[in-house]
Design goal:
Blueprint: H1 12-16, H2 19-24, H3 32-53, E1 58-61, H4 66-71, E2 85-89, H5 93-100, E3 107-112, E4 119-125, E5 133-138
Parallel strand pairs: 3-5
Antiparallel strand pairs: 1-2, 2-4, 3-4
C-alpha cells in the first residue's frame, strides 16, 4: 500500500485501516477524490487540533468503502464514504472537545457513555469550511 502523508501527524494508512474490512476481506482503498477530501480534513481540522492539543489524536474510523460502511451500520449518506469524516479520540477528550468546538467542523458528534457522561470518541467532518451541527450521542 502506498502510504501518503497528508500532514506532519496524519497519513492515509490511518484512514483506510478497518477491522471490518480485514475481517470480511473487503477493499477499503480510498479513491483519489476521497484522498483529496481526507487531506482537506487533516489540513483544516485534525492537524490544527493536534498542534493545539500537543498530543496524539487516534483515528478509529476514517474512509469507508460502501460495503464497509454498510457492515458497520453507517448512515447511507455518511461523510466517511467520501473521505470527509473521521472518528477520533485522545487521552484528554475534554480538552480536545474545547479545541474542536473552535474548528470549522461541518459535523461534530460527541459520543458519551450513558452512565458517566464521559467522552468516548468524536465524529468530525469537514465540508469546505461550512459549519453544520454538533451534538452528543449516548452509548
Amino acid at each position: 500500500m502506498n502510504n501518503i502523508r497528508f500532514t506532519e501527524h496524519f497519513s492515509l494508512i490511518e484512514f483506510e485501516r478497518s477491522e471490518t474490512a480485514k475481517k470480511y476481506k473487503l477493499d477499503n482503498t480510498a479513491s483519489p477524490l476521497a484522498k483529496d477530501n481526507l487531506k482537506d480534513l487533516c489540513d483544516n481540522i485534525l492537524e490544527p487540533a493536534r498542534r493545539r492539543l500537543g498530543m496524539p489524536i487516534i483515528v478509529t474510523s476514517g474512509f469507508r468503502s460502501a460495503e464497509v460502511n454498510r457492515r458497520v451500520g453507517g448512515a447511507l449518506n455518511s461523510m466517511h464514504l467520501t473521505g470527509r469524516a473521521a472518528d477520533i479520540y485522545c487521552s484528554d477528550n475534554d480538552r480536545l472537545l474545547e479545541i474542536l468546538k473552535q474548528m470549522p467542523c461541518y459535523e461534530l458528534i460527541v459520543y458519551r457513555y450513558k452512565q458517566s457522561g464521559r467522552i468516548n470518541r468524536f465524529h468530525v467532518s469537514y465540508n469546505g469550511g461550512r459549519k453544520g451541527s454538533w451534538f452528543s450521542k449516548y452509548i
